[in-house]
Design brief:
It contains 14 helices and no strands. The chain is mainly α and 292 residues long. It has one domain. The chain is globular.
Amino acid sequence: MFGMDLVSIVTAALAGAAGGAIGALIASMLPETAKGLRTVVIVGFIVALPTLAKPALTPYVEQYAGTWLRAGQFDALYDTEVTAELKKIPAIERLFRDHPETEKRFREQARKAYESGGPKHLLEMAPSIGADALGDALMLYMPKARGEDLILFATTMADTLTQMNERDPEVCILYQFGSKLGVPLDNTRMTATIGKDGQKRLVDTMNALVMNAGDKAVEHDRVKGEAAVSELAQRHAPLLTGSSSEVATGARIYKDVAEAKAACTFAASMFRDLATMDKVTSELILRHLYAS
């Protein structure tokens, strides 16, 4: 048996959704680069799922750290043990059922991580794998999500990013964009920053978003949505000091902790605003930000 913390996987996928929203918001502030910013790559694989979905693949990394699987053994153990654990996370099960190509990508990413460094390496690479394998698929459910789940997402991200910014601003940026920028956030650092409770909350949020999502995107007034997004963007624009907007959209890594903190402050502030404003306007903005 080998260890994979599914909580980390879900966590990373959620980070990608947050990064996408931030990119879209800043794009509305910078029309000339809107196209590029609106397609900010989804971050955070997280085979350990420390933030979005509750259940996780039981690690037991310490116990099995010295017994790496040979290439030919990976598939057999994945089919028997990993598949069973995946079914404990409803959101992951639906993602894989609806998008078989996502499960295939997840499996191959896990295989490469395991074969290159064993159980401990797989566990540490969980956030990065989660972002790469699950991020795009998760984004497909955002336009179909219920209004209350979108607001739950905003509230969860506001609290999570605020906690990261207070304890380790760099984690806040790496959580959202580390995988895309080639500077993956390791599971140990992420867990140390938000704790097990924070991870569970992220997992529960992802389950709500995916499991309650309908089959079609929910329509919204795009004209009103564009106006509301613009107003939100302008309200928080002063928080982006210097060239920190480049960091806030995942265009590049931060130069120092101060720049990371400025970019994270913008993200946390935006989600806090969405979590506390009237629900009708919040849902409208979130639907517009995630509209395909």
